[in-house]
Design goal:
Length: 480
């Protein structure tokens, strides 16, 4: 008989969270800690969603999305997770850029960028200050008509090199382009500039283990291999979910699944206003990614001056569409030195990431797909050679992932790595007005994606759910 992954689960909860990405887990943790009964349902056999890792024989552990996040993670993790989780967040030392326009190493914060922009790129100090202040002052309620491209043109007209320095890491960090609203750039860039780029010591596996322990300590009922098929309503209100052949009731449901999957697959458009459905249909997905994972043989090392994060490109000019092109010219390398996992085996690993279009991979036959993956690996190894000489001889293991891989493991529509474009935020926030008790928490709107964005969005939505449940409790007639 197949294993019952819902064995012992209740028939009813205050809150059901669909998906254990960072946003879903954070909402579940906050609501569990507040005393609500919470069921967390994850379709995969592992928690974490895109915040994931995998192991290969020989003691190699690859991180998929642990490349860097802003300092704000410390505060969010301390408040909404635990002091131990916050204490493991440490700065990355060397952020490197290497492209035909410039090669440099930076600590990637405001002081160092001010130095670089004035001394090396010869921009007037007053312009640099005004740019930082403008980016820092942006918030969600600002006029969203200005694009990131226009913002750059205002401060650095005609300076492709400056735009490249300022934009390349953000394109990688959240898939945004020069055509997206400037606010999506300003908020994310300023978050990083406040204190540089941070990582989690011990790796993603340690973080997710610590989060799972915290969820269990807060009495959250955590279930893996539970693929939610349907969110069910009664009289326009969320009532239950259908999962693994059971119907489990809930006073509220938070979906951490992809926004479009939540609306069109789990809920069904017939439940919603036509206008809302039309707007939801217009929401653009963010791009997906390809990655090549490389483990060096035991004993093989790379000098740490090579960088922790290395933005490398052979493209002569900077265009955001080139960063997505199937003909890869830009790669972001993350180096994982043995200090990444101080308690693990001494290993040096390298992950090359490139933003990618789902369509470039989705329609390939199996044979073409395997050939494309092999080509991705070979061309990446050629490119890495510049930074890690004789890489092929020193390799213990190499493999690749594609947009198809990301879709397979997370069910994200089109394998989107960073949720949706900006317009997704209003739809995600508007869902509870359409269906009482139904919320969405997960990568949307660029601002709410990435590790920090997803966690912070999980906090916002947990607060909304808490307010709704409290209001419902006070307005309910007292039982006699
Ligand atoms: C290659 C790559 C590199 C990245 N690099 C970085 C980085 O360096 N820094 C950074 O900050 N961010 C990075 N990100 C982005 C970051 O990982 C994500 O934005 C974040 O983890 C998303 O969290 P989320 O809460 O939106 O949920 P997701 O991680 O998208 O998780 C959603 C979860 O819902 C589950 N689910 C879906 N449907 C169902 C269903 N029907 N039933 C049950 N469960 C379901 C999925 O299995 C998944 O576990 C990267 C992402 C990728 C792909």
């Amino acid at each position: 008989m197949p294993k019952d992954f819902l064995k012992g689960a209740n028939d009813e909860y205050d809150v059901i969270v669909i998906g254990s990405g960072l946003a879903g887990m954070t909402s579940a943790n906050i609501l569990g800690r507040a005393g609500y009964s919470v069921l967390l349902l994850e379709q995969h056999y592992k928690l974490g969603g895109m915040a994931t890792w995998f192991k290969r024989p020989g003691g190699h552990i690859f991180d998929v999305s642990l490349h860097g996040f802003p300092y704000g993670m410390i505060k969010s993790c301390r408040r909404y997770w635990s002091p131990e989780i916050a204490a493991a967040i440490v700065p990355l030392k060397n952020i490197r850029f290497d492209n035909p326009m410039f090669s440099l190493t930076t600590t990637y914060n405001r002081d160092d960028f001010t130095r670089l922009l004035t001394d090396r790129f010869d921009v007037a100090p007053a312009t640099v200050k005004a740019f930082f202040d403008t980016a820092r002052g942006m918030n969600f309620y600002d006029d969203q008509a200005m694009t990131t491209g226009q913002l750059f043109e205002q401060f650095f007209p005609g300076r492709q090199d400056v735009v490249r320095l300022l934009m390349e890491p953000i394109v990688y960090a959240n898939g945004s382009t020069l055509e997206d609203p400037a606010i999506t750039y300003g908020i994310v860039f300023s978050n990083f500039m406040s204190k540089g780029v941070y990582t989690f010591e011990g790796g993603t596996d340690r973080l997710i283990q610590m989060m799972e322990a915290e969820l269990l300590a807060n009495q959250v009922d955590v279930r893996i291999k539970c693929d939610v098929e349907k969110i069910n309503l009664r009289q326009g209100r969320v009532a239950s979910v259908t999962v693994n052949g059971r119907t489990i009731k809930a006073r509220s449901v938070i979906s951490n699944a992809n926004l479009r999957a939540t609306i069109f697959r789990l809920l069904g458009e017939e439940q919603l206003d036509r206008q809302f459905v039309d707007q939801a249909r217009e929401v653009r997905l963010n791009n997906s990614s390809t990655q090549v994972y490389m483990a060096l043989k035991p004993g093989e090392t790379v000098d740490e001056s090579t960088g922790d994060l290395l933005f490398s490109s052979t493209a002569r000019e900077f265009r955001t569409d080139l960063l997505l092109n199937r003909d890869v010219t830009s790669r972001t390398y993350s180096f994982y030195y043995p200090r990444t996992r101080p308690d693990g085996r001494e290993r040096t690993l390298l992950v090359s990431s490139t933003n990618a279009h789902f369509q470039d991979w989705s329609d390939l036959s199996d044979e073409e797909y395997q050939a494309s993956k092999a080509d991705l690996i070979e061309t990446t190894l050629d490119a890495v050679e510049t930074y890690v000489p004789n890489i092929r001889r020193r390799l213990a293991h190499v493999e690749a992932s594609t947009p198809r891989t990301f879709r397979h493991y997370t069910q994200h529509v089109a394998g989107a790595s960073f949720g949706t474009k900006f317009e997704g935020l209003a739809i995600s926030r508007g869902l509870p007005e359409q269906v009482k008790g139904l919320y969405h928490a997960g990568s949307v709107g660029i601002i709410m994606s990435g590790w920090l964005g997803a966690i912070n969005y999980g906090v916002i939505v947990a607060n909304d759910v808490d307010s709704m449940l409290m209001a419902a409790a006070t307005s309910a007639p007292a039982s006699s």
